[in-house]
């Protein structure tokens, strides 16, 4: 999962959780507010009950009932009750039930609020007050209670939540969208890091630079330090290769001089053996130096394959192996590949020399374009190479026979891999086709 998607999901979950807690808190606050309003309303209704009390021949009666019609409707949801020495007086809405007030002690004028079970086992919010009546009403202490169905309060809270839910949903969507925009803006420099690294790899830049946010700058600095260390190591490797070439130059000359003296002394066989050994050693050293040069080449190199092939074939036609062959060049002028010209000459030269050595009568050099890559092929009509030995030949120091060191294919493979390509071997009809798969390049060689 991408970093952006992880952060977006985490942010969305946090927003949903926060808004859920907010909605729950608002629901509780609204419920408490509704209950306070209900208590205030019951306070008014309790005062109305007390104001309507009269004493008649049958004791206390309520001459003026509260105006709300629910007091007169059986189980209407609003109830009043008076408990005193003369017995129990209650609203018509209680019908044959009574409010089961708890046995608590209230001072004169004291008020308690309870949650009780009322008619039909419905939960009630009940307010009771202890009052000492005036002498005209008998002067006794009575408990007056007014109750309200708690379902009405719960219904009000549910209605509030139903009205609130769409707005909370819209708020959640808005916050999630804002979070996504914030992530896109905040993580944009990371996309720039990827693009800059790709440019470095393609040779379109040298360093990451310092134009980065403070959080990304340490990574850019480390990449630049790594590039600097790699360049320094490459320079040291090239220096060691140059030192090696210089150090071996004198011994090679000494060996060739010794071979010349042996030939003058009439020992031509020994002289030839020394010269062959020295030449083989020189070829090995030269090719290892070519590898060192390849490692230091930039990735933005471009070479004209047609020009390189023309020069190679012109030379090979003058060699003993190539002078009797039919050389066919099927590479259009201006075909550019992502490889340095010297490296392309080294790789194609190795393949063309191998083809000339094994071909019976014909060598074909051709090019095709496929999936943004250039395929340079060298085909001969020789005996070919068994498929089970091809990987061995491409590997370092692989050889097809005992006639030579056989480094050509492995060097060509290393040059192609250094440029981001590869070397493949396949059957021709008859013979062998060696193909360099290289990055294509637009434009002209420098």
From TrEMBL:
Q: Which UniProt keywords apply?
A: Kinase, Membrane, Phosphoprotein, Transferase, Transmembrane, Transmembrane helix
Q: Which Gene3D superfamilies match?
A: Histidine kinase-like ATPase, C-terminal domain (3.30.565.10)
The places in or outside the cell where this protein is found are: Membrane
Q: One GO cellular component term, please give it.
A: plasma membrane
Domain Histidine kinase residue range list? 243-442
Task: Recite the lineage of the species.
Answer: Bacteria, Pseudomonadati, Pseudomonadota, Alphaproteobacteria, Rhodobacterales
Q: Which reaction does it catalyse?
A: ATP + protein L-histidine = ADP + protein N-phospho-L-histidine
Give the gene name.
phoQ
Q: Which PANTHER family match?
A: SENSOR HISTIDINE KINASE TRCS (PTHR45436:SF5), SENSOR HISTIDINE KINASE YKOH (PTHR45436)
Transmembrane helix as a keyword? yes
Pfam families registered for this protein in UniProt: HATPase_c
Task: State where it is primarily located.
Answer: membrane
Stated EC number for the protein is 2.7.13.3
Q: Name one GO molecular function term.
A: protein histidine kinase activity
Task: Give a GO biological-process term.
Answer: phosphorelay signal transduction system
Question: Is Transmembrane helix set as a keyword in this record?
Answer: yes
| Name of the protein in question | histidine kinase
